[in-house]
């Protein structure tokens, strides 16, 4: 094992500083061990510490902003998905009500093969009965031109997240029409 003595002299803005060290390894290790204690390194550490104080807490602000943005995006996705589901349900119920009305035919003419005639009173009543049986949906049904059954529906979706900003419900509608035709060989007659 060798013992090495080295002298390191550094010139800074305040003058000359000398350091002497003794080590049991090499001269490079001695230099590395003594540079951490000079005045220049102390000033550098203080400058880094002061810069760190200015950015302290910036990560917390960034995280809060990001979390709030993500919550808003998730909330919009949930409520818009719920609105689409309510819209599809209102449309499906309108279509089924119109179909129920469209099945109300005047039987005698249809059985004889003379044509397909809609019973307007029975068709409107069947469509309204179907609408009345659907929970959470209101609507109307009527017969147009003696051959078409029209059903309109309304429903409301209660928001989950948008209620936090004052939007508590979203109204959705559905509309369907059924045309009653006699078809021969795939062609309406």
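Q: What amino acid sequence fits the structure above?
A:
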């Amino acid at each position: 094992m060798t013992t090495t003595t080295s002298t390191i002299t550094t010139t800074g803005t305040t003058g000359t500083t000398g350091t002497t060290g003794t080590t049991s390894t090499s001269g490079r290790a001695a230099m590395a061990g003594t540079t951490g204690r000079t005045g220049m390194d102390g000033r550098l550490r203080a400058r880094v510490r002061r810069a760190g104080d200015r950015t302290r807490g910036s990560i917390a602000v960034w995280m809060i902003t990001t979390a709030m943005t993500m919550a808003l995006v998730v909330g919009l996705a949930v409520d818009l998905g719920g609105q689409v589901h309510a819209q599809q349900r209102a449309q499906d119920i309108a279509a089924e009500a119109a179909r129920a009305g469209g099945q109300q035919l005047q039987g005698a003419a249809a059985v004889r093969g003379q044509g397909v005639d809609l019973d307007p009173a029975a068709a409107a009543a069947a469509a309204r009965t179907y609408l009345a049986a659907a929970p959470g949906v209101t609507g109307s049904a009527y017969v147009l031109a003696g051959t078409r059954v029209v059903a309109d529906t309304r429903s409301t979706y209660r928001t989950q997240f948008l209620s936090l900003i004052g939007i508590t419900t979203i109204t959705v509608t559905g509309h369907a029409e059924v045309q009653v035709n006699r078809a021969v060989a795939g062609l309406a007659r």
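Q: And what stands out in the fold?
A: The beta strands are 4-12, 15-23, 137-144, 148-158, 169-179, 183-184, 187-188.
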